[in-house]
Design a protein that fits this description.
The complex is a heterodimer.
Chain A lengths: L1 H26 L12 H19 L9 H41 L4 H22 L6
Chain B lengths: L3 H11 L2 H19 L4 H9 L8 H26 L8 H12 L3 H35 L3 H18 L4 H15 L2 E2 L6 E2 L13 H20 L23 H6 L1 H16 L4 H16 L11 H25 L5 H12 L8 H4 L1 H32 L4 H20 L2 H19 L4 H24 L11 H18 L2 H5 L1
Antiparallel strand pairs in B: 1-2
Helix pairs in contact in B: 1-16, 2-4, 2-16, 3-4, 3-9, 3-14, 4-5, 4-6, 4-13, 4-14, 4-16, 5-6, 5-13, 6-11, 6-13, 6-16, 7-8, 7-19, 7-20, 8-19, 9-17, 9-18, 9-19, 11-12, 11-13, 12-13, 13-14, 17-18
Classes of the chains: A mainly alpha, B mainly alpha.
Chain lengths: 140, 499
Amino acid sequence: MQNTDRMTGGFFLVFGIVLYFAIIPNNVSDMEGGWILPTTIPNATAVLMALCGGVLVVKPTVQDIQSPKEFMRAGFYFALLVLGLWAMSYVRFVYAGPAIALVLMGLIGERRPVWIVTSVVILPAAIWFLVTVILERSLP
Amino acid sequence: MVEFSTILAGFGDAFTLWNLAFVLFGVVVGQFVGAVPGIGPVMAMAIAIPFTFGLDTLPAIAFLVGVNKGGLVGGAVPAVLMNTPGTPDAAATAMDGYPLARQGKPLKATKMALFSSVTGDTFSDIVLITVSAPLAILALRMGPVEVFGLMIFAFAILSGLIGNSLMKGVIAAAFGLLCSMVGGDPENNTPRLLFGYWQNYDGLPLASVAIGMLAISEILRRLSQITGDMQSAVEVIDTGNPDDRRVTWAEYWACRYTMARGAVIGTILGALPGIGSTAAAFMSYASAKGASKEPETFGKGNLHGIAAAESANSAVVGANLIPLLTLGIPGSVGAALIISALMIHGVQPGPLLFENQGRLIYGLFGAMIMANLMNLWVGQLGLRFWIKVVSAPESIIFSSALLLCIVGVSMATGGIFGVAIMLIFAGLGYLMTSFGYSVVIFIIAFFLGPRFEISLSQSLALMNGDWTRITNYPVALILMALAVCSVVWFSTGARRSQT
């Protein structure tokens, strides 16, 4: 679909402009001296993205795109991972890791006890053994 | 020039039991993950890097090389059995491998894939070993201006060759460069684009970016495609005839020209940044079909089809290391991961590598040769087991890969902050891939970004800020002219008409 390229091209056109005029000036301080300024390459990339984004809007290619349902499912799994990470920052990997695996397997549709036990108990235990006992590092 | 004693010492290091054990472990892991559709050697390498921190440099790199090489062999198994390549490189293998499996000869097909893969890989490794040191001597004569020109040329080639649009390629490269600018700038140490997160002052962690974009984004994609039905086990048809389970010497020898052609194509394409093994496999397949007296049998289970695809895609692996070891420029994501592992272990890739780390490099070459032999050995013993691995449920594969990614990145970056960055780049990688923007170009640009900026700064210093003095650097001028020519070439659609 050509509209997809127009849409993403438009995004990069706007993103490049916002980067150049708002984000980079406010988040990179310019210094005197030296051969290139700290903003030189960030600005150059912003200009490139805006220019190429503009070209894509005018001359889009044909881009197949996934179904909205797939996007939504991916977004859901992403949100689940964010939630898992947030939980991990409180209760650590030892508890959050198996919980993430359990929820994930449940959502995928896995109901076979052997695979569930393998993924929720044996695998996290193996990771714990590898990281804390063999490698002597700490788990998140 | 590297001394002969250094070369011998390097090869000697590779043949110690400890290092051989890691090569073997890497090959086993590689063949295993290659056989599992959805993981692949690149994802496995990305996950494995943080776990190699505790190792010495040679076993760590040898392990990763083993994973990469083993993955290409393993990738052929699902391609043959399920018509679903475990890695994109094996897509051409499926064209003749799958029909052969349907005829009741899955083991013959996978063994032919194994033999031709090892043949192509060994050829490209020999080329790598013989040409990289002389090339590195040439590369040593290049100053910052030439390196800057070379990087511009590499970006132009990568943007044009990967993906279906030059504009999208340039956007991906620019975005990767922008992300590599996060942190202190090289001249003044001015903080850039930190948004208050001072943890990023040293730059975004490569492990978070690479694993997020390559592994987690792919897991998200695969998870979103699962509709609730668990995959059924693969049905393996067996005729009961022992001849259908093996490749005879006569059959192997009959494919010698096909494999030689595939190995040459793979080596040449592998030495050029960005083209990749998938393109090499299809190009070799097409040339084998064109040269065949029975082109109509291709696609119906012709052993030459498998030999052509596998010898070419495996030959790319060794050749990919030529620009990496001589110039410090990775030609593929696999090479970028190896370069990042080298840097994590305190080794700076580039032309000085042979001078400063000659023993390590020749140790790596020794490990690569051993990995080929072990690929053959493990493949012979393990093919029956990998055939069973193909039918492992996705639920356990993805949940375990996910947990390993989280733990690996946490170890690499020292905490949960790195994991959060990984998730951000996973989302970004998912969106980029969905809309046709190459994450490969992004990662290579992200990796080369700091060096690009330093080369630019040094070039300006050498030219005293006067760009007209670039005429004093003819090599750089030629490289930049080539970059402009390639952009014009790609943008006029010449590439599309070629393919």
